[in-house]
Amino acid sequence: MTSAPSITITRLDLQRLERLLDSLEEFGPGAAALQAELDRAEVIGHDQVPAGLVTMNSRVHCREESNGKDYHLTLVYPQDAGKDGCVSILAPVGSALLGLSVGQHIDWIAPGGKELKLTLLAVEYQPEAAGEYSR
Question: Which fold has domain 8-125?
């Protein structure tokens, strides 16, 4: 697997995600992957978020490079993951997307063990850009 790109997250997302991890009854592979991402992230204030950065509750447009398939996904907390187009932060692709900037690639292992390369094409909605900090 190639080295992971640098990622940036907001202090508010970090605090909420650490609370989420602390609340889990079982610390499974999804939680371990998320913790690894949080540990390597640069942390910024919610008022310093650049456009094109994936934060919690962002809607993104990305492409899986091996098949050229485009996805429109919203990165959400586990309790919201059942909704159409929503991906949990605890899913492998969820923790892979957090903190990416437009144009970056991430390699991640899909269920079943296949390695996929995802390219972030656009952030279609970002709560910080919309002035929404409550979630």
Answer: Chitinase A; domain 3 (3.10.50)
